[in-house]
Amino acid sequence: MKALLCSALISLVSPVFFVQAIPTPQSSGIKTIARDTATQLRGKRIADVDILVFRFADLLEQLEGAFYTQALAKFQDADYEAAGFSGAPAQQLEIIRGQEASHSAFLESAVESAGECPITCNFNFDAVLENVASVINVARTAEQIGTSAFAGSAHLIMDLSLRTRAVTILSDEARHNSILNLISNTGAPFPTSFDIALNANEALALVGPFIDGPCDAGIPPNPSLAITNEEPVTTGSLVTFSSTAFNSSSENLFCQIISGELLTAVSMPLSECTIPMEGVMGPAYIWVTADPEPLPNDVVARAMVEVVAGPALAFIDK
């Protein structure tokens, strides 16, 4: 219904305010902000790339909001306490859900102010809502992806006021990430001095398995990569993977591990993909490539590099 209404409204928008459809890029591989804040942009031509970034960011906010809504409907604080989690996790998730809704409302209002429609996506979390430990792990994962995605996309935003607002959302995502690291009982609240930025293709590879049905962000995702280890991955772990991008043979493929403190990836043959004993901590992203050359910890440079699949995300908790 919302999409139909938005389409109808666009037909009434003056051509002066209309922003042309965004071309699909070629790739290989707070408390509530009043909607009036975004309406200040009405009548101002917003760059196509800004619309593209905001739609992508809103997809991530929708995913987080949908996950928290489903998790809160199933588990309460008593369930978390019974499983050994402290700090009123359900209350914290409720606060985070409200802030994600505020982020989404702002992003969608900015898109609509340019005479464009936000995208609306559906998600399926059935496989990860089996118990509270899984809920905390997925929440932690979602907030880390959100932090990395905002960090990797903010530089693309042309409008300086929109870029500033996006950066304030980034800082909020980082706070969510920190509290969930604490609630997990396994991770330091801020384990590294630097976060890892992801480009949109990489972030979409991570959230793609949760998307249920059509959801065209206008950005092609990298092929997804799943870690198949039964036990949590830690230093010294041999990491195994599955992906539709390659078969069971790992010959001539390489794994590339990046954590926040590294300038380039640790690269090694895929069949020997082992978390180093030193230098890798906190969130670590892992790609599969056909080239042993270490990937740069730089979204601009990495966007020009071919990857086979990924990244996948592992938390190396010490």
UniProtKB/TrEMBL annotation:
Keywords annotated in UniProt: Signal
Signal sequence, renumbered to the chain: 1-21
Top-level taxon of origin: Eukaryota
Keyword Signal: yes
Name assigned to this protein: Ferritin-like domain-containing protein
Annotated source species: Agaricus bisporus var. burnettii
